[in-house]
Write a structure and sequence with these properties.
Helix content is about 20%, strand content about 20%. The chain contains two helices and seven strands. The radius of gyration is 23 Å and the shape is elongated. Bound molecules: zinc ion. The site of zinc ion (ZN) has 8 residues, from loops.
Length: about 120
Protein backbone atom coordinates (compact mmCIF):
# COMPACT_ATOMS: atom_id res chain seq x y z
CA UNK A 1 0.00 0.00 0.00
CA UNK A 2 2.97 2.33 0.55
CA UNK A 3 3.55 2.49 -3.21
CA UNK A 4 0.38 4.47 -3.75
CA UNK A 5 0.83 8.04 -4.82
CA UNK A 6 -1.49 10.97 -5.26
CA UNK A 7 -2.44 12.56 -8.54
CA UNK A 8 -0.58 15.86 -8.82
CA UNK A 9 -3.48 17.61 -10.54
CA UNK A 10 -4.21 20.65 -8.34
CA UNK A 11 -7.97 20.36 -8.98
CA UNK A 12 -8.26 16.56 -8.92
CA UNK A 13 -10.37 16.58 -5.74
CA UNK A 14 -12.91 18.98 -7.29
CA UNK A 15 -14.06 16.60 -10.03
CA UNK A 16 -17.17 14.76 -8.95
CA UNK A 17 -16.62 11.12 -9.74
CA UNK A 18 -17.78 8.23 -7.60
CA UNK A 19 -14.24 6.90 -7.10
CA UNK A 20 -13.12 10.24 -5.63
CA UNK A 21 -15.87 10.19 -3.00
CA UNK A 22 -14.15 8.64 0.04
CA UNK A 23 -14.52 8.36 3.77
CA UNK A 24 -16.99 6.90 6.27
CA UNK A 25 -20.72 7.17 5.76
CA UNK A 26 -21.99 10.59 6.77
CA UNK A 27 -18.52 12.10 6.44
CA UNK A 28 -17.63 11.56 2.81
CA UNK A 29 -15.45 13.99 0.89
CA UNK A 30 -14.20 14.21 -2.67
CA UNK A 31 -10.51 13.41 -2.54
CA UNK A 32 -7.47 13.52 -4.79
CA UNK A 33 -7.11 10.23 -6.62
CA UNK A 34 -4.51 7.82 -5.25
CA UNK A 35 -3.11 4.96 -7.34
CA UNK A 36 -0.04 2.77 -7.72
CA UNK A 37 0.48 4.21 -11.20
CA UNK A 38 -0.82 6.93 -13.49
CA UNK A 39 -0.60 7.34 -17.25
CA UNK A 40 -0.35 11.11 -17.56
CA UNK A 41 2.17 13.82 -16.67
CA UNK A 42 5.00 11.30 -16.71
CA UNK A 43 3.13 8.99 -14.35
CA UNK A 44 1.96 11.73 -11.99
CA UNK A 45 -1.59 12.60 -13.07
CA UNK A 46 -4.75 10.51 -13.29
CA UNK A 47 -6.15 12.11 -16.45
CA UNK A 48 -5.40 14.57 -19.24
CA UNK A 49 -7.62 17.03 -17.39
CA UNK A 50 -5.41 16.85 -14.27
CA UNK A 51 -2.30 16.96 -16.47
CA UNK A 52 -3.60 20.12 -18.15
CA UNK A 53 -4.52 21.65 -14.78
CA UNK A 54 -1.02 21.01 -13.53
CA UNK A 55 0.55 22.57 -16.61
CA UNK A 56 -1.72 25.60 -16.48
CA UNK A 57 -0.69 26.19 -12.88
CA UNK A 58 3.02 25.23 -13.02
CA UNK A 59 4.10 25.00 -16.68
CA UNK A 60 5.48 28.50 -17.01
CA UNK A 61 7.54 28.10 -13.84
CA UNK A 62 8.76 24.67 -14.93
CA UNK A 63 9.93 25.95 -18.31
CA UNK A 64 11.74 28.85 -16.68
CA UNK A 65 13.30 26.49 -14.13
CA UNK A 66 14.56 23.90 -16.62
CA UNK A 67 15.60 26.38 -19.26
CA UNK A 68 13.60 28.14 -21.91
CA UNK A 69 14.43 27.65 -25.58
CA UNK A 70 15.47 31.11 -26.73
CA UNK A 71 16.73 30.38 -30.23
CA UNK A 72 15.89 27.93 -32.98
CA UNK A 73 17.52 24.52 -32.70
CA UNK A 74 18.79 23.22 -36.00
CA UNK A 75 18.94 19.84 -37.61
CA UNK A 76 22.06 19.71 -39.77
CA UNK A 77 23.77 16.93 -41.71
CA UNK A 78 25.72 16.20 -38.51
CA UNK A 79 22.71 15.41 -36.32
CA UNK A 80 20.03 14.43 -38.86
CA UNK A 81 20.68 10.66 -38.71
CA UNK A 82 17.68 8.61 -37.71
CA UNK A 83 17.13 4.90 -37.48
CA UNK A 84 14.68 3.17 -39.79
CA UNK A 85 13.69 -0.34 -40.69
CA UNK A 86 12.45 -1.71 -43.96
CA UNK A 87 12.03 -5.03 -45.71
CA UNK A 88 14.35 -6.28 -48.43
CA UNK A 89 13.32 -8.26 -51.51
CA UNK A 90 13.34 -11.49 -49.45
CA UNK A 91 10.92 -9.91 -46.97
CA UNK A 92 13.69 -9.84 -44.36
CA UNK A 93 13.75 -6.88 -42.03
CA UNK A 94 16.70 -4.56 -42.62
CA UNK A 95 17.90 -1.70 -40.47
CA UNK A 96 19.40 1.52 -41.77
CA UNK A 97 20.55 4.91 -40.66
CA UNK A 98 19.15 7.63 -42.92
CA UNK A 99 20.23 11.25 -42.96
CA UNK A 100 17.25 13.62 -43.30
CA UNK A 101 19.41 16.37 -44.80
CA UNK A 102 21.63 14.49 -47.26
CA UNK A 103 19.40 11.43 -47.73
CA UNK A 104 22.49 9.28 -47.31
CA UNK A 105 21.74 5.80 -46.04
CA UNK A 106 24.05 3.54 -44.04
CA UNK A 107 23.52 -0.06 -42.94
CA UNK A 108 22.75 -0.73 -39.30
CA UNK A 109 22.81 -4.00 -37.38
CA UNK A 110 19.75 -5.07 -35.41
CA UNK A 111 21.80 -4.61 -32.23
CA UNK A 112 22.71 -1.04 -33.18
CA UNK A 113 19.07 -0.36 -34.10
CA UNK A 114 17.83 -1.58 -30.70
CA UNK A 115 20.62 0.13 -28.73
CA UNK A 116 18.99 3.43 -27.73
CA UNK A 117 22.38 4.92 -26.84
CA UNK A 118 23.95 4.08 -30.21
CA UNK A 119 24.14 7.05 -32.55
CA UNK A 120 26.36 8.48 -35.24
CA UNK A 121 24.95 11.95 -34.73
CA UNK A 122 27.60 14.40 -33.62
CA UNK A 123 25.43 17.18 -32.21
CA UNK A 124 22.07 17.87 -30.54
ZN1 LIG B 1 -6.26 13.69 -10.91
Amino acid sequence: MSDLKYCQGPECHTYYTKDRLRGPKGNKTYQTRRRSSFYYLGGNACSTRCQDDWFRKHGEQAINYFGRTTEAKQLTEHNAWHKQYDWDSNDDMIYVYRNSITNEQRPLTKEQYNDTSYTINTGE
